[in-house]
Amino acid sequence: MKVTVVGAGAVGATAADNIARKELCEELVLLDIKDGITEGKAMDFAQSQTLLGSDTKIIGSTNDYSKTKGSNVVVITSGVPRKPGMSREELIGINADIVEGVALKILEESPEAILVIISNPMDTMTYLALKATKLPKNRIIGMGGILDSARFKYFLSTAMNVSAQDLQAVVIGGHGDTTMIPLTRLATYNSTPVSNYLDEETLNKVAADTMVGGATLTKLLGTSAWYAPGAAAATLVEAIVRDEKKLIPCSVLLDGEYGQKDICIGVPVVIGKTGWEKIIDFKLNEDEQAKFNKSADAVRNMNAALNKIG
Ligand SMILES: NC(=O)c1ccc[n+]([C@@H]2O[C@H](COP(=O)([O-])OP(=O)(O)OC[C@H]3O[C@@H](n4cnc5c(N)ncnc54)[C@H](O)[C@@H]3O)[C@@H](O)[C@H]2O)c1
Ligand SMILES: O=C(O)C[C@H](O)C(=O)O
Questions:
Q1: What pLDDT score does 212 carry?
Q2: Do 198 and 49 belong to one domain?
Q3: Which residues form the active site (predicted)?
Q4: ipTM of the predicted structure?
Q5: 304 alpha carbon to ligand 2 midpoint, in Å?
Q6: What is the whole-number distance in angstroms between the Cα of residue 53 and the centre of ligand 2?
Q7: Which of 55, 143, 153, 191 has a C-alpha 20 to 30 A away from that of 307?
C-alpha cells in the first residue's frame, strides 16, 4: 500500500505521523510546495520511527508528483486554514484552485487512487474535486463528520463523566459552524439513549459546543486545529486500506439519499477498500430532516459560489 498526504502543514503532518505510527502502508509520501519542509519532516518522522518501532518508508517531496506515483490513497490537506473570527466558507477563494490543481496532478500519477479531501470549506472542496476529476463518486471522500462526531463524543463524555469509548454519537450535514447536525436523539451510552442521563438543556449545550468545536479551537490556537483532524484523517485511511467496512460519517455525493441530489454533504457511510461503499439511512425524524435540508441549502449555495470564482 502507498499513501500520499498533500500539504505538510499542521493537519497533513499530523495525519502522516498517525498513518506511519499505525503502519497503514509500506510507503508514505508527504508533498508540499514549501522547499525542504517535506524532506525535513519525512526525515524527522523516519527517525521517530526508529524509537516507535514501525517500519513505514517515508518520502518527502517538494512538489514532485512523480514520487506519489501509484498511491492507493491520497489525503489532500493543501490550502489555507482559517484565523479566529473567520468561517471555513471564507477560504473558498484561495483553496478552490489549490484543491482542484492538486487533485488533477495526483490522478496523473495515481489514476486508481481514492481521494480524501480535508481542505476547507470541505463539502464544497469535495464536490469540486469530484467535478474536476470526474472520478467515480465512491472514490472521493470528504473528511469532516468523523471529526465532528469525535468532538460530539468528547462533549457528551465530559457532561456525563464517562468514557467516550462507551458512546456512539454521529454528526451529519455540512462541516460548518451552523450547518452540522449532531444527532442527539440517536446518541447512545452502551446502547441506552444519552437522554436517559442528560437533561434537554445540557444536551442542547453539548450540541451547540460541538457545532462551534472548530471555531472554539481556532480562537484558542490562533489557527485551526490539527491533532484531532490528523487522527480523524488517519482513521479514515485505516478504514480504507484495511477494508474495515466501518461506519464513518463522511461528505459524499448524494443521489437522492437523505432527500438530496448533486451535493456532497455529511452522511453515515460504510468505508472499505473501494472508498465509500454504501450510505446508511438513519431514518431521520421530521425535525432532523428539516435541519438536513437547510444544511444542504447552505452547502449548495457555497457550491454555487465556485462558478463565480472559477
Ligand atoms: N475537514 C476538516 O475537518 C479539517 C480539519 C482541520 C483543517 N482543515 C483544513 O485543512 C487545511 C489545512 O490546514 P492546516 O492547519 O494543515 O494548514 P497549514 O497552513 O498548516 O498547512 C497547509 C499546507 O498546505 C500547503 N500548500 C498550499 N498550497 C499547496 C499546493 N498547491 N500543493 C501542496 N501543498 C500546498 C502549504 O504550503 C502548507 O504547508 C485548511 O484548509 C483547513 O481549514 C480541515
Ligand atoms: O475549524 C476549522 O476551520 C478547521 C476544521 O474544519 C476543524 O473543524 O477543525
A1: 98
A2: no
A3: 175
A4: 0.99
A5: 21
A6: 31
A7: 143
Q: Which ligand is nearest to the CA of 141?
A: 1
Please indicate, yes or no, whether residues 9 and 131 belong to a single structural domain of this protein.
yes
Ligand 1 centre distance from Cα of residue 116 (Å): 13
Atom of ligand 1 at shortest distance to CA of 8?
A: 39
Task: Please report where in the chains the cell 498517525 appears, as a residue.
Answer: 18
pLDDT digits (tens, 9 = 90+) for 199-238: 999 999 999 999 999 999 999 999 999 999 999 999 999 9
Nearest ligand 2 atom, CA 229 = 9
Whether residue 297 sits in one domain with residue 207: yes
> Ligand 2, atom 9: nearest CA belongs to which residue?
214
Ligand 1 lined by 230 (C-beta under 6 Å):
no
Do 127 and 155 belong together in one domain?
no
What is the pTM (predicted TM-score) of this model?
0.98
| Residue 148 and residue 194 in one domain | yes
Q: Which of 123, 169, 175, 241 is catalytic?
A: 175
Nearest atom of ligand 2 to the alpha carbon of 148: 8
pLDDT band at 310, cuts 50/70/90? low
Domain boundary among 91, 121, 143: 143
Residues 155-172 pLDDT 10s: 999 999 999 999 999 999
